[in-house]
Structure formats: C-alpha cells, structure tokens
Automatic annotation (TrEMBL):
<dbReference type="InterPro" id="IPR038268">
    <property type="entry name" value="RHH_sf"/>
</dbReference>
<protein>
    <recommendedName>
        <fullName>Ribbon-helix-helix domain-containing protein</fullName>
    </recommendedName>
</protein>
<feature type="domain" description="Ribbon-helix-helix">
    <location>
        <begin position="22"/>
        <end position="82"/>
    </location>
</feature>
<dbReference type="Pfam" id="PF13467">
    <property type="entry name" value="RHH_4"/>
</dbReference>
<dbReference type="InterPro" id="IPR027373">
    <property type="entry name" value="RHH_dom"/>
</dbReference>
Length: 87
C-alpha cells in the first residue's frame, strides 16, 4: 500500500490492487463490448445497480445512452456523482 501525503495534510493510503484495471464484457443494446475500470468502480456500479433494482448491463446501457465521450470515463464520473449525492 503506497502512502501519499501533501504538506500539512493527513496521510492517504492507496491500495495498489485498487488501481489495476479489470476488463469486463457487457452487452449494450445487443452488442458485446469490453470495459476496463478499477475494482472500486466495478464494486460501486454493482452496488448502485442493485440499489436501483437494475442489472449491471441495464445501468451501463443507461449511462451509455446519456454520455458524450468515452464510456469508461462516463462510468467513473457517474459513480463519483452518485457518491457525492450520498447514494
């Protein structure tokens, strides 16, 4: 676990395992595609999909339909928005 510390700030411990990319295949609108995200983002997407009563594929398809850029980036931003909103 690496530690990061800014002047006068508390130490932040980062788990290297959380920083590696994991590739998963999903089906979006009857088309298979692969996505690479860090494990904490996959875990958050699964939790948020379950909380919404959706499958992971359905949630990703919904985010995909609303995005304007890279899908992996859109998923990360969406997860951060949900966490910031307290979901």
């Amino acid at each position: 676990m690496a530690e990061v510390r800014a002047e006068g700030a508390p130490t932040i411990a980062l788990d290297p395992g959380d920083q590696r990319l994991e590739k998963h295949s999903v089906t979006l609108f009857q088309h298979r595609t692969s996505l690479s995200l860090e494990p904490p983002f996959w875990a958050a997407l699964r939790r948020l999909a379950a909380a919404r009563g959706q499958s992971l594929n359905a949630l990703i398809a919904e985010i995909d339909a609303a995005r304007s850029g890279n899908l992996s980036s859109a998923l990360r931003v969406w997860v951060l928005q949900q966490i910031s909103a307290g979901r």
